[in-house]
Design brief:
355 residues; TATA-Binding Protein; 2 domains; 7 helices; 13 strands; globular
């Protein structure tokens, strides 16, 4: 009978022989190189999961985000340098933003980095997460008031601790890459059981208390930065773009998945950052009158007197319209020499300053 030690030696030598044979065969072309097989891969219909079975395990581990913009590149262009690894996307890493009755916390980090911290934040307030949807970034807590810390939380928000409240939080991809937006809603303690998306849509805004709560969340996130981890479960949140540029359509446009009020203020800041001069505006009609590409021609006007000569001249109307898909932004030329290409350039500059 072969000794156990001898068996191990035989197995080891056999493994080396097989490995060496594989290298030789691949070098001689006997084993097919499948490196570029993906190039000829065919797209098939998605798998259909029978009723009653879960398709959770069929989700993509590394989701490919949708195309945010479609535009034809010029024949000649310069590839911009990649951003610095440690470059900050935002001037302020944490800031509270408001547009009418909408309040949110803007953070210069990806949603996947913030998601694990949310349960810890609620735990610090004496609350538990009773329901969550990582892919949608939604979190719901139990009713506050049953613990000392949650009792104090309600008092700090100016609420009756005996009435109790539940809190819902939504984590979204920000408008700019590598940023996140956090919003909260206050719900009655006896809120009926409903899907989290429905609860969020039906909740009444309370801007003042929401801002108070977001300020507490901001302080918590700033204090625990060193303990950050990354959630692969929540990575799909980062693929949910809110801004899309379409320059190949008959009428080029930007689509914003925002409310009109938020879209209006977002566009106002983008025009300012893009240094596009706003001559006039009409919010009720959703129109900005802007001057674009005219500054270069000032010196050709012999009777002009400095920058005041063109102060009331505009050559584009930036129009915001509510559609079924969101807010659509178009650039309409008002002069005979306004070209489609120039309009696309204007939209592209706006888009790049939003994102």
């Amino acid at each position: 009978m072969m000794h156990i030690h001898s068996r191990k030696i035989v197995r080891f030598c056999g493994g080396l022989l097989i490995a060496g044979l594989g290298v030789q065969m691949s070098g001689c072309g006997l084993l097919t190189d499948r490196t570029n097989y993906y190039v000829d891969a065919k797209r098939h219909a998605p798998l259909v999961v029978p009723d009653g079975l879960s398709q959770e395990r069929l989700q993509d581990d590394y989701a490919i985000p949708p195309i945010e913009s479609q535009r034809t590149l010029a024949a000649e262009f310069v590839v911009p340098p990649p951003p610095e690894v440690d470059a900050k996307v935002l001037e302020e890493q944490y800031s509270i933003r408001q547009s009418d009755d909408q309040v949110w916390l803007l953070v210069g980090e990806e949603p996947g980095r913030l998601w694990p911290a949310l349960a810890r934040f609620w735990s610090e307030q004496g609350l538990e997460v009773v329901d969550s949807l990582a892919r949608e970034g939604l979190v719901l807590t139990n009713a506050a008031g049953s613990t000392a810390r949650s009792h104090n939380l309600l008092e700090s928000l100016g609420l009756d601790p005996n009435a109790g409240r539940r809190f819902q939080l939504k984590l979204d991809q920000g408008l700019k890459r590598g940023t996140s937006e956090l919003s909260v809603r206050l719900l009655p303690a006896n809120t009926a059981v409903q899907p989290l998306e429905t609860l969020w849509q039906q909740a009444d805004p309370d801007p003042q208390r929401e801002q108070q709560l977001l300020e507490m969340l901001m302080s918590y996130l700033q204090a625990e930065e060193a303990e950050r981890s990354y959630s692969l479960v929540a990575q799909d949140i980062s693929t949910g773009a809110k801004v899309f540029l379409q320059t190949e359509a008959e009428v080029p446009f930007i689509r914003l998945d925002l409310s009109f009020e938020r879209a209006w203020s977002t566009l106002e800041k983008a025009l300012q950052d893009a240094q596009v001069r706003v001559v006039d505006l009409n919010r009720s009609e959703g129109v900005y009158l802007v001057s674009f590409g005219q500054e270069e021609s000032r010196s050709w006007w012999p009777w002009s007197k400095g920058s005041e000569a063109l102060s009331d001249r505009y050559n584009y109307r930036i129009i915001l319209q509510q559609t079924a898909e969101g807010i659509q932004v178009t650039a309409e030329g008002t002069e005979a020499d306004a070209s489609r290409d120039q309009g696309v350039q204007l939209l592209t500059r706006i888009y790049e300053n939003i994102t």
